[in-house]
Structure prediction request, 98 residues.
Amino acid sequence: MELERHGRHFQEELEQLKTRLLEMGGLAEEQVRLAVKALMECSDDLRYPGFQIWQYQLANYTPYVVAGLLFMLLTIPMTRFTDAVSRRYGYTPGGGHL
Prediction:
């Protein structure tokens, strides 16, 4: 009984996944068709509105890049400093060496 319910639920999820993958395939096919059409016709009006690439128009990743760089700039020296202080006080790591 329990196994049947899980099996049925698994089959339903597989069907939903199949449907979504087919939808994504259709969208990708449409984008490729529009890209080829834009290249063949050298049409400016097909390059951006036809593709509808909103992530480049709406998303600004600058804060994430800056935060990542700051994280690296602060974390690496701080880790080295912490390791040096630990070794000075006699801590020997149990793990391997890089």
